[in-house]
Amino acid sequence: MTPEEFRQAGYAVVDWIADYWATVAERPVTSQDRPGTVAAGLPTAAPAEGEPVESVLADLDKLVAPGLTHWQHPGFFGYFPANTSGPSVLGDLVSAGLGVQGMLWATGPACTELETVMLDWLAQALDLPARFRSTGTGGGVIQDSASSATLVATLVALHRAGGGRWREVGVDRRYRVYASTEAHSSIEKAARIAGLGVDGVRLIEVDPVTRAMSPAALRAAIEADRAAGVVPALVVATVGTTSTTAIDPLPQIGPICAEHRVFLHVDAAYAGAAAICPELRFGHAGLEYADSYCFDPHKWLLTGFDCDAFWVADAAELVQALTVLPEYLRNAATESGAVIDYRDWQVPLGRRFRALKLWFVLRWYGVEGLRAHIRHGVALAARFADRVRADNRFELVAPHPYSLVCFRLRGPDGPNERLLAAVNSTGRVYLTHTRVAGRHTLRLAVGAPQTTETHVDEAWELISQAAALAD
Amino acid sequence: MTPEEFRQAGYAVVDWIADYWATVAERPVTSQDRPGTVAAGLPTAAPAEGEPVESVLADLDKLVAPGLTHWQHPGFFGYFPANTSGPSVLGDLVSAGLGVQGMLWATGPACTELETVMLDWLAQALDLPARFRSTGTGGGVIQDSASSATLVATLVALHRAGGGRWREVGVDRRYRVYASTEAHSSIEKAARIAGLGVDGVRLIEVDPVTRAMSPAALRAAIEADRAAGVVPALVVATVGTTSTTAIDPLPQIGPICAEHRVFLHVDAAYAGAAAICPELRFGHAGLEYADSYCFDPHKWLLTGFDCDAFWVADAAELVQALTVLPEYLRNAATESGAVIDYRDWQVPLGRRFRALKLWFVLRWYGVEGLRAHIRHGVALAARFADRVRADNRFELVAPHPYSLVCFRLRGPDGPNERLLAAVNSTGRVYLTHTRVAGRHTLRLAVGAPQTTETHVDEAWELISQAAALAD
């Protein structure tokens, strides 16, 4: 494809996306098709000869779009938001066009340096502790996801716990990882990947009301394990759990980790973005105890997936844990020690120029624009929670400090399950569920960029009507 | 940003990329700036208020582009190619615009199904063994990179070796991974991540001429380890090593793995793409023995990073090894067993709609168009190798079955190091180096989409001239 062919086709694709965004609200949020429908519409082999872009775009409309869950739909309230935005898409488009491989500073100096600066910008915008800035011993990096950040933190913790021998001799299965019973499944997955097995994870009980980790239970578990010859290696505390956005109390957890020299990773995948607003920084109290921290601009900060922002307080320790330097990657810049090679900060070797989308987002919206987006989501969630609170049929089952509301019909699970199915089958909204203290609970997570009061009110109307029929 | 604002800014960014591609050959391939130059040109904090896209594009020209290594430059001959193309960029653009999260079938049915079909298309186009097709027990998935594919293969191998106990109790440090001394550093990194440590990897000697793994040495190592109570878990064979594109002999390695029940992963990250041409499938002989296989369309198949295509023969085993199912991800489709949830096929939870760029590439070029691209690269490499062979000052240091030529000035390393530095300092071409049998060796890898005979000839002229001064 020549540059001129790309220019014409590029305009057509830009138009396609602009039109998609302008009309996404008219589509059903989720596909009603049965499994296999999309695959059945596709040929069984690639074409032998090339086809024009128009044919592909026609099939995109005919075959692909009807088979999607529309995460950017204003009625999308499932999981956590995965919001994107025009400037994010443009930054990603530049990245794709440049086709730069940022594994080493030498393979893309601007790719590396813009990333360092963007992570410093974000650290400042969120008022993260100084220890995470690149001007000291710390620094930030973009991971694909919070799962990968958790894995990297796990590996560094094992390296530290192993006293420098982990790299050579492997993992000691007496090491333990601690997280609350409400923590994300990626912690168990990381422990399994790292060779600890599920048995290497201790799930710590939570407060029955706040759903936050009990510091007393954490201390008791660590002390009992130490007494038994088990080695506490890592605590993962969560700011904004996936089920209910509970906030583990860092001011109490941090000193326990410090006392027992346990690596502390803080996973704020969804809720961290809220800290761009000074009044929403409460979850970060005690963050100065953390050895590493992450949040996902790709969840709630208008930056498309994948963009997890991950910081460590000791970058040298991270690099020691992960570096491998074969001859074909040696270069003068690396050997000067004056540059960052981000391949040593992550699991894969290769990496895209993802800092561009952060740069486009931060410059287009500015810090104030992003604050407005966060505050809008929090206000919409509060509006919805007010509706729930005012209706005696329903109960709120957890605090809603951010933009997620957890609620249910009072009483047994069955009607709640039917309510969820009924509401989602309208195609107008999409909610997901969780279990809180064993009870089936509906989750309404606000954050799609086009969601307004109208959409939240419509969601409530649909829920309220369906509730009447769900008993 | 409204859809209309996006439309206008989108045209501008498309123009920027078209102009970049049209003029990239005029830029120096690598930046001549010192470390810190880009960072020094950026503000120390994000702007408080938003700025127009034009300001960002101006800074892209002024600050970022001069600080890049231009991987799409026709004079880029370093590492392996990371080529992209117009249709790949357009597919990625659609993906960014949709902003779909493909972790589960339910979160993006078309995202999942198009990926399954694209991996089947690729398997057919490369004539991979039937065991990897989704129509049987196998199937394919997109990983971000071959490093991650190697890690996933390592985890499945450990799961299998552990007889189903690895998930719970963790890794047994008696497990061993085998690869040749020429294999990629990601194998050691994967073993370290998986908790085996460097000590868990046995590097098997290679044939001194072909640089391919010695099957006799592999057998001897496995038998000695078994006799010593060590458990062989995984062999990673490489088709097209990073240093010299050596091809480990699968027809001999496969039966050894089968006999000792060792998981066999085949890493064809770079060279696998060549198999789209029937006459270049020699490296895949014996692939029917493999439990898993990967290659990178993002290296040499005109598809932008990240796009590693990874197949397994037993998808159920892979899912068993990696699945974690918390309540908030439960859904009817998953529980029906009728769908693929690709989150269980990879390390992270989240995933982008990367199949779109493969779809755009396969349809725009067709299989014949992609064959022409591969054949073009192989012919250019052969042309360059002929120049080297005809000049008595130089020697070819390894076979060049694909599009990488490894060569050096006869004699000591010093002149070769100076030659490489001199040639790269011209800014017209960029080559990297390796060590072959301990000797400093230059690598010229063809594959950037704009590279033609003119550029290869210019590279030779620069090398030939610099050689006269390098002694």
TrEMBL record, chains A, B:
GO terms for cellular component: cytoplasm
One annotated GO molecular function: aromatic-L-amino-acid decarboxylase activity
Keywords, sorted A to Z: Decarboxylase, Lyase, Pyridoxal phosphate
Residues annotated with N6-(pyridoxal phosphate)lysine modification: K299
Statement: the UniProt record of this protein carries the keyword Lyase: yes
Any GO BP: carboxylic acid metabolic process
Pfam families named in the record: Pyridoxal_deC
Cofactor: pyridoxal 5'-phosphate
Family membership noted in the UniProt record: Belongs to the group II decarboxylase family.
Record-given protein name: Amino acid decarboxylase
Organism: Micromonospora maris
